[in-house]
Write a structure and sequence with these properties.
The chain is mainly α and 206 residues long. The chain has nine helices and two strands, in the order H-H-H-H-H-H-E-E-H-H-H. Strands 1-2 form a two-stranded antiparallel sheet. A hairpin with a 5-residue loop joins strand 1 (129-131) and strand 2 (137-139). It starts with a helix and ends in a 13-residue tail after the last helix. 33% of the residues are buried. The mean pLDDT is 93.
Amino acid sequence: MRTEIEVLGDLWRVWGAWGADLDEAQWTAPTRCAGWDVAALYAHVSQGVGGLTALAQRRRAEGPPEHGDAVALLRALKPDGRVAADLAARNADAAVADARAAGTAELVRRLAVDGPAAVALAAAGPDQTVEYFRRGTTTVRAAAVVRLVEATVHLLDLAVALSREPDLPDGATEHTLRFLTGMAPPLALIEVATGRRAPDIFPVFG
């Protein structure tokens, strides 16, 4: 199987290729993410490119990472209750504003041009420990997995909005499933999967 960082690069290439062919009606089509059209969806995913670039260029942090993988990182970052709702609303508004300010050509450029450069930087030191935006330390690989999962999940949203097949690259499904099952409480997941419990543990990632 291709590495997480390689698959992330493949995903961003798909996003870039799809975006290059969209017309105005498609860019403004609504998605199943509340408040987002296709352009806002692109803005959100493309912001991950700059974030990964910044992390990969940071000075190595001392000692082992506080959050050793993507699951540990997201569990540490995940807020509860009203805080989560407020954060989701701010993120949604930020994507809409970014889409309007940047324009569609810039959104595509981030993924098609800056994306491969970010992947190359990350691949050069995937296990480097870095400070994660003042939220503790993690590895470049863990940060890449978070972006891989977002790019995969939102590609499904994009495909629905455009009435297209998802066209997921090899490894995207496997890496995403590994992350999602890691986020779920293991015993509860077994009971849900075998029909012994209501699916009240979902969603584990939004």
